[in-house]
């Protein structure tokens, strides 16, 4: 779960997101996707204020910094996810294509992705 700050209200907000990639062992960053594209409120909030808090598994909530992935990184992450989870992707992609209004593939993906790097 991601805790972020509303860009207009300053209020704490929470959203549950699909983790496409966990980096490190133990994980010190997570890559998540914005299924509603750049119009998702959480996405707009973290681009306005990248200071967030991540709730993952049984770990204590941790402060983190959000960073939007560039196209090359997003394509790589999505391609890896599709290879690791082909059956999940079959269903997930149909939902994403409806919410984004465009086909989603691992080449020039229209799916915005954000890395949530835990602060040290």
UniProtKB/TrEMBL annotation:
Pfam families xrefs: F420H2_quin_red (PF04075)
Gene Ontology MF terms in the entry: oxidoreductase activity
Record protein name field: Nitroreductase
């Amino acid at each position: 779960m991601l805790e972020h700050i509303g860009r207009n209200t300053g209020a704490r907000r929470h959203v549950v997101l699909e983790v496409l990639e966990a980096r490190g062992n133990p994980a010190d960053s997570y890559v998540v996707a914005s299924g509603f594209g750049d119009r998702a409120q959480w996405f707009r909030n973290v681009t306005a204020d990248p200071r967030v808090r991540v709730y993952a598994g049984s770990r204590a909530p941790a402060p983190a910094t959000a960073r939007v992935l560039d196209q090359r990184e997003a394509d790589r992450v999505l391609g890896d996810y599709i290879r690791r989870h082909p059956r999940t992707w079959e269903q997930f992609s149909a939902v994403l294509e409806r919410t984004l209004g465009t086909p989603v593939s691992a080449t020039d993906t229209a799916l915005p992705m954000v890395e949530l790097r835990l602060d040290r």
